[in-house]
Design goal:
Largest sheet: 4 strands, antiparallel
Distance between the termini: 63 Å
Order of helices and strands: HHEHEEEEEEEHE
Number of domains: 1
Strand order of the largest sheet: 2-6-7-8
Shape: globular
Radius of gyration: 22 Å
Number of helices: 4
Length: 186
């Protein structure tokens, strides 16, 4: 049983401890996601999974009225839906890291929709809708470092089936070859 002094507030120490614990967790989360490669990798994987979810939602209805249920060929289209009449399928901060027109990065990476995939050494494009704005049979999303070497030496790839694979990148020249066609799944 605690001895309490009438009229004196209790819990000042516990509130300070709770605040310290919350602050420590915030610092830990920031360190994990921004400072080390494991944190960057976890952040990139989460963004890839969010983009895959948005691609599935995008394909559930014929958004451009061409008669096809298709995946977005530009990831920015996952945000720019109906000219502002409905909320986008991804957050603006993630949209700013997508496609060739990206203005930002997330954990040092940018995200791209691939036009096809390399299979058995040959570039194989995805089937596209008649207007060429979307793919019908699948997609691959790439997460490539903005500055190979400084932010990372790996490219991450995610398919419509949810399979993720990585490729070691030796430099900017090698990264450039993956901007349209993803490497073979491993």
């Amino acid at each position: 049983m605690r001895n309490e002094v009438p009229g004196k507030k209790q819990g000042g120490r516990s509130a300070a401890l709770a605040f310290t614990a919350v602050a420590a967790c915030g610092v830990l989360i920031y360190t994990l996601y921004s400072g080390n490669s494991a944190g960057r990798e976890a952040g990139v994987m989460a963004a890839l999974k969010e983009l895959r979810r948005a691609q599935g939602d995008f394909r559930r209805e014929d958004r451009d009225g061409d008669g096809y249920l298709e995946y977005a060929l530009r990831l920015g289209n996952l945000y720019e839906i109906d000219a502002g009449n409905r909320p986008g399928l991804i957050e603006p901060a993630l949209a700013e890291t997508c496609d060739e027109t990206a203005t930002g990065d997330l954990f040092g990476y940018r995200f791209y929709a691939m036009r096809g995939i390399t299979l058995e050494g040959r570039r194989t494009p995805y089937s596209t809708a008649a207007d060429g704005n979307g793919t019908l049979d699948g997609f691959t999303i790439a997460a490539l470092p903005v500055d190979t070497g400084r932010q990372g030496h790996r490219g991450y790839f995610l398919s419509e089936a949810g399979e993720i694979w990585t490729v070691a990148l030796s430099g900017e020249r090698e990264k450039a070859q993956f901007l349209e066609y993803a490497p073979e799944r491993r």
